[in-house]
From TrEMBL:
Belongs to the gluconokinase GntK/GntV family. Its EC number is 2.7.1.12. InterPro entries: P-loop_NTPase, Therm_gnt_kin. It is an enzyme of class 2 (transferase). Coiled coil: none annotated. The lineage of its organism: Bacteria, Bacillati, Actinomycetota, Actinomycetes, Kitasatosporales. Keywords: ATP-binding, Kinase, Nucleotide-binding, Transferase. NCBIfam families: therm_gnt_kin. It comes from Streptomyces viridiviolaceus. The keyword Transferase applies. The keyword Kinase applies. Gene3D superfamilies: P-loop containing nucleotide triphosphate hydrolases (3.40.50.300). CDD domains: GntK (cd02021). It catalyses: D-gluconate + ATP = 6-phospho-D-gluconate + ADP + H(+). This is Gluconokinase.
Amino acid sequence: MQQLHTPHVVVVMGVAGTGKTTIGPLLAARLGVPYAEGDDFHPAANIAKMTAGTPLTDEDRWPWLDAIGGWAHGRAGLGGVVSSSALKRSYRDRLRAAAPGVVFVHLTGSRELIEDRMSHRQGHFMPTALLDSQFATLQPLEPDEAGVAVDVAGSPEEITERAMNALKALPEPVQ
Ligand SMILES: Nc1ncnc2c1ncn2[C@@H]1O[C@H](COP(=O)(O)OP(=O)(O)OP(=O)(O)O)[C@@H](O)[C@H]1O
Ligand SMILES: [Mg+2]
């Protein structure tokens, strides 16, 4: 384990299939902090919608993002890693409103690579159109947002190492 001086609260973001659920727990283990799966914060109404195959609206997303932000806020000063695709700037603004110190690790990769990985995922089927819409919706981190972009080529261990190195280059979180 490699502890940073003041532990970061990290949101692992990126399009579907980019590796948030794979890398998030590995990164948390390296940082020695807990991991939370963003999908687990959906209110029951969202789960019902998703189960019925109805796309979520932004209005549906606010309470979900507030719940993730609440968890992140509770980890301030202690450190934590949570996954959330956080594709839009407005979603990240909402997370920061709840947890001002969060830093984003944006997992980035080519559409070809991610599509290939998704095609091997067991028990999941993602239509090509859904991946298209994910890339169309994605608003990458802007210069004023605390965070790093991490390329997802290579093994999960390599990506985690890349993320650790990128985080080390960031200033420590302000308490
Ligand atoms: N570095 C990697 N090398 C090979 N396969 C990987 C790698 N990272 C993730 N995968 C595989 O790619 C698929 C998608 O990864 P994962 O489920 O972690 O993505 P995700 O961002 O959490 O997706 P979602 O947004 O749908 O929750 C999984 O089958 C996973 O095992
Ligand atoms: Mg996931």
